[in-house]
Amino acid sequence: MIATASVVAVLIATTRPAAATFPGENGRISFLEFNNVTNAVDVYTINPEGSDERQLTSLSQTQFVANGAQWSPDGSQLVFPVVTNNPVPGQIWVMNADGSNQHAVFTDPNNLDFNATFSPDGRHIAFTRCQPNGFPPCAIYQIRSDGSDLTALTNFDPNPDIVDAFPQYSPDGQHVAFTNLTREGVLEANYVMNADGSDVHRLTPPAIGAANGDWSPSGEKLAFDTNDPFCGGGACFFPNPEIWMIGGNGEGLQRITGDPNFLDFNPSWAPQGNAIVFEQDDSSFTTSQLLILNIDEERATPAVIHKGSTRRFQRAAAAKATPNKSARTASARPLQILEDDGFTPHWGPVPH
Amino acid sequence: MRAIHLKSTFSVVVTLVVAFLPLIRSRDVRAADIDENGKIAFVGNQSGSFQLYIMNPDGSHMTQLTNLAPTTNESWLPDFSPDGKRITFSYGQSDASGNPHADIFVIDVDGTNLTQITHDGLSAVSRWSPDGTHFSLLKQSTRTNRGVVATMRVDGSNLRLLTSDLWGVFRSGYTPDGGHILWETQEAGFVSVLWIMNSDGTNQKRLTSAPLKAGLPSSPSSDHVVFMRNQNSPSVVPTTLDKMRLDGSDIDQLTQPVGNSHDGWPNYSPSRQKIVFTSDRLSSDGSLDIFTMNADGTGMKRIATGVTVGGCADQNCVNPAWGRSSR
């Protein structure tokens, strides 16, 4: 009665990835972008300074890269889920960092598989598995990186409102963080379990609606976004995602972004642990930009490294208003504006 | 209610409890003397569209009270005035985008004197205060589009918003002494929990734990409330009726599911000795019937069937209420 809306539709629609950031030297950032000509979403990479943008995939409009492309620990590969209506609902694909050798490693016509992430040793890929057509319940599954040995880390709950999603291995490979909807009567929170699926426990408080965690390269902190209602400037936004952080032991909870006029989500740590790249959308989720936040500075103003072409007016206003503050960011470079939309970033290490 | 105060400010309230014990006892004695025959009001669509009905507690003499324009809004949530002479309910149409809008209405139990109390399309889920002067209700916030627990005089004046507009709320109700309001909410990130506060909105406190997913609370008795377990859950999850003290203790499951049956929308009889509720436990097509049982969960019996044709979305119709005889 008074049933809540289908949750998986929301998960897919908001394209919130599970990221895995592994220690290393800061390398390129992967992101997704909508192609207005082909009506497809493709994978791109870009340098953190905003230079050398490259398109890696050329998918069709019937294919959708759900929840981003995530880096292998050595920075040599990307894993990305391709969701299509025919013939398979969701496939796990892998390609080299330059876009070559694109191939599916796992396909199953009976489930929607998406939201894939490498383990720290590169031998496994964890992902979110939902029922056909994306209906809940959803659970966390794992395969070897060659697509073999499908294993459930969490199980489908008899209650179809229970959704486990956005898995992410801790850098030491001992734990997996994931987001759950409605487990234990909590609307949305980040949980942590052992890598074999045991000892599931909630990490974040219910009131902030936490999701989409990303371990810091040291494994000491988890950056995540929230769905808590946020009011300011005489208006409220639902949801109003902001970027938060919490210690792996559940201590040190703090919000690190908080502009009520924009929606901040999809955080991904820099491999050096000195910055976070995240997506910022307008209040209707129709335009996006990628921002870098220097986490060494409290309340540092993020710099725009990639900004949507449909936001020229806002872009110009932002550039005029914040040119000096942007110099405080991780790369200590001036505000830089590119010409295309981008979303769901993942920061990779320099290949080694 | 006194137990709630005991939990937080023990020494002071012990005195208050002792002082008010005679009052509580006398209220219960009077309740036991109330004519249990009374009337049950509910929302049914057996006439072709959802309308307000009234019947005897044994299901006899079912009478259609309203003949309002058909609406897709099926949750009218009727509630009797303390003297049993009038019924308040929520009614309205959806806009072009499909968003429901409702206002508070009052009608005499003989179907006369239909009066629209609010005119903003943002008011619903009204319940009378024990002295008959106020409603508790849900007022939709224009700022956040979420429900807020509010009170107002029964003529619609003196509106007071009592809870945050950041989280959704649903049904609320006064305690018999009028001093507190108990309500259902998602406050602080839960699927559905019950809270209680002073009737002026102060001293808000959560009563139920998250896994219970408690919702659809009855109007409280002097010491208990009946609610539905597994609120906001998909239809494959059964729902049952539970009872607990007003400090959140002594939770007692009153009904057991039959398969994945759904018991819901509980309300006490005027004496608080019986409970009326809806269930699909005996229906083959998921439609809701109206049941009564004793307040301890015994003596369950179906008193009306066929009150919904083709069921209702999310089982949010029927909403039976039990009022005293209007003598």
| CATH class term of chain A | Mainly Beta
Largest sheet of chain B: 4 strands, antiparallel
What's the helix count of chain A? Answer: 2
CATH topology value of chain A: Neuraminidase
Query: In the CATH hierarchy, what is the superfamily of the largest domain in chain B?
Result: TolB, C-terminal domain
CATH topology (fold) name of the largest domain in chain B: Neuraminidase
Global outline of chain B: globular
Helix proportion of chain B = under 10%
**Which CATH top level class of the largest domain in chain B fits?**
Mainly Beta
What is the averaged pLDDT score of chain A? Answer: 80
Q: What is the CATH homology-level superfamily of chain A?
A: TolB, C-terminal domain
Number of strands of chain B: 23
Radius of gyration of chain B: 18 Å
Helical content of chain A, roughly?
under 10%
Could you please describe the fold and organization of this structure?
The complex is a heterodimer of chains A (352) and B (327). Chain A has helices at 7-13, 312-321; strands at 26-35, 40-46, 54-55, 63-65, 70-71, 77-84, 90-96, 103-107, 112-118, 124-130, 138-144, 151-152, 163-169, 175-181, 188-194, 201-202, 210-215, 221-226, 230-232, 235-237, 243-247, 254-255, 263-269, 275-281, 288-294, 303-307, 343-349. By secondary structure, chain A is mostly beta strands. In chain A, strands 4, 5, 6, 7 and 8 form a 5-stranded antiparallel β-sheet that branches. Chain B is mostly beta strands and 327 residues long. Chain B folds into 2 domains: 1-33, no CATH class; 92-313, TolB, C-terminal domain (Neuraminidase), CATH 2.120.10.30. Chain B has 2 helices and 23 strands. In chain B, the strands form 6 sheets. Chain B has a 4-stranded antiparallel β-sheet, with no helix packed on it. In chain B, strand 14 (193-198) and strand 15 form a beta hairpin. Chain B is globular. The A-B interface holds A 1-4, 158-161, 182, 184-189, 205-209, 228-229, 231, 235-236, 238 and B 143-146, 165-167, 170, 186, 188-193, 209-213, 215-216, 228, 231-237, 239, 262, 264, 314-316.
